[in-house]
Amino acid sequence: MVKKVTINSKHQITLPKVLRDKYHMSYGKSVIVSDSGEGIIIKHGNGTLRGILKGKVGTEGFEKNIKNLRKEWK
């Protein structure tokens, strides 16, 4: 199914009712928005974002960067 939606003055879109009903989306529910390289993908949120960044964010050098920033601030 392909539906055309319009971006309003607040940069928001309204999801078509048929899709909101199909995926049980209602006011206050969260969705996951990602860039596919070809466009924007909106996925039904599971109510939690735990694990969404798994494998995408590393901690290598984190402490070193913090120490360097602290030195710069002094």
Give a verbal description of the structure:
Helices cover 24% and strands 14% of the residues. The protein has helices at 17-22, 62-73; strands spanning 31-35, 40-44. The longest helix is centred in the last third of the chain and has 12 residues, at 62-73. A hairpin with a 4-residue loop joins strand 1 and strand 2. The protein has 74 residues and is α+β, with helices and mostly antiparallel strands. 0% of the residues are buried.
Brief summary of the model shown:
By secondary structure, the protein is α+β, with helices and mostly antiparallel strands.
Keywords:
two-stranded antiparallel ribbon, single chain, 74 residues, elongated, 2 strands, Pemi-like Protein 1, Chain: D, 24% helix, alpha+beta
Blueprint (SSEs and pairs):
Layout: H1 17-22, E1 31-35, E2 40-44, H2 62-73
Antiparallel strand pairs: 1-2
Return the CATH class of the domain at 1-48.
Answer: Mainly Beta
- Any guess at the CATH architecture of the domain at 1-48? Ribbon
Strand content: 5-15%
Which strands sit side by side, in order, in the main sheet?
1-2
What overall geometry do the principal axes of the alpha carbons give?
Answer: elongated
Number of helical segments?
A: 2
Percent helix:
10-25%
How large is the radius of gyration?
Answer: 19 Å
Termini Cα gap: 57 Å
Task: Work out the oligomeric state of the chains in this entry.
Answer: single chain
What is the H/E string? HEEH
Number of strands: 2
How many strands, what sense, and barrel or not for the largest sheet? 2 strands, antiparallel
User: The CATH topology of the domain at 1-48 is what?
Assistant: Pemi-like Protein 1, Chain: D
Pick out the low-confidence regions. Answer: none
Kindly state the mean pLDDT as a whole number? 83
